[in-house]
Amino acid sequence: MIFTKLRSYLIIHLHMKHCIITIYFLASFIGGIQAQTSKSYSIESAVRFIELARAAEQGKQPSEADWEALFATKGYQSFFSIRTDWKEWQQNIRKAFTTVFDPACRAMADSIALQPMATDAPFENYFIVNFYQIRQRMDSLEHFLHHSDFEQLMKQAYSRVKEFLPADAKDLPLADLPMFYLAFDPESRAMGGAVFFDINQVYEDGKEGFINTAAHELHHHYMDALWDLRYPKDSDDPALTALVYNQMEGTADLISKPEMPVTKLGLYGPEIVKMYNDDYAATPEVLKQLDNLTCDYAAGKITAEQFEEAAGCAHFGGHTTGDYMVFLIRDQLGLQTAIDCFCDIPAFVRRYNEAAAKADTYVFSDAFVQYIDKVCQEMKGE
Questions:
Q1: Same domain, 282 and 354
Q2: Could you report how far apart the first and last alpha carbons of the chain are, in Å?
Q3: 306-353: per-residue pLDDT in tens?
């Protein structure tokens, strides 16, 4: 269906820019050691990673067989089976692990991890910084993994997400999303019908962070189902792609990141925080570009290949530009208005225009609105 196709586009572009907004959560510490794997979640990969890290701290670096066993655990195996660049991911994990947990490399690890993360840092450094923190808190992480009631907190997340869904989405029958806990860069990702959480960022954000972030991911899950219900036909229109991801992330961020600008982005340094906030503030220019590209294409002034640039008008995967659009609707027209137009792209564009007019910021042209109406009508089979 269209939403699966569009999400694949997003994942590729987010990885290229290393700009997925970090998602974190922490389950509450409730007594009772739980199994490493249940129907809804698995901590097997995280547990095995920490076991290898403890052995490395004592001078026993992982053998090739150890690495193969780690990457065969349920979380890593599922993650790598989805990604076409899995070899690069495995290489980054292995190199960062050696840098952090081999005592002979301690000086190099210190030099990287103790500096603020810059925008031009190699992707491998994100793993090093994250593993460096894991090394400092392994006891706490082990306690967290074995004494957390993940299933109970997911029930709370399901309740939370329904506060941010339109009425016709709340009772949609959905399959449970499997949750995997592992260790990689300081991010968490929803992809391939599952959610992958980095244990360090999970630990960092606390119980409410868990509930809100899990609800954020569940919100995407509901969007998949609602989108297929409302739009039975497919489309790869670039302007639609941008709008879908702007609304998807902007609406989910109402749950997990409801205020802009941000003062912190996980383990990222102030340079990246500034870039993120500056991009949010520059959204009107991005929307103007989206409008112009779309209208030029509709008028025959540019080619279909040139029009593909419009799909890139969802910056940071739709977080900065999407937050601007959705938060503007919320602030000018009310939270319920922002929720009610969810998965109704023509309504989203119109509500944005109403809010933008009130706030005296960029308003989409009538020609753009009409173009989006036509695309969505075709997807409905009208």
A1: yes
A2: 18
A3: 999 999 999 999 999 999 999 999 999 999 999 999 999 999 999 999
- Total domains, the chain: 2
Strands 179-182 vs 41-42: parallel, antiparallel or unpaired: parallel
What would the DSSP string read from start to end of 31-97? SSPPPSB-SSEE-HHHHHHHHHHHHHHTT-PPPHHHHHHHHTSHHHHHHHHH-TTHHHHHHHHHHHH
Say if residue 212 is in the same domain as residue 159. Answer: yes
Exposure letters 14-50 (e unless 16+ CB within 10 A, then b): bbeebbbbbbbbbbbeeeeebebbeeebbbbbbbbbb
Sheet of strand 179-182, all strands in order from the earlier edge strand to the far edge: 41-42, 179-182, 194-198, 188-191
Which of 227, 251, 277 corresponds to the end of one domain?
A: 227
Last residue of a domain, one of 227, 242, 259: 227
What is the per-residue DSSP string for 164-203? GS-GGGTT---PPPPEEEE-SSS-EEEETTEEEEEHHHHH
- Per-residue model confidence as pLDDT tens digits over 47-75: 999 999 999 999 999 999 999 999 999 99
Specify whether the CB–CB gap between 62 and 56 falls below 8 A.
yes
Residue 159 lies in a domain: yes
**Closest by Cα among 295, 288, 290 to 361:** 288
Specify whether 211 is located in the same domain as 244. no
The residue range of the domain holding 321 is 234-380
Strand partners, 194: 191
Longest dimension (CA), the chain: 67
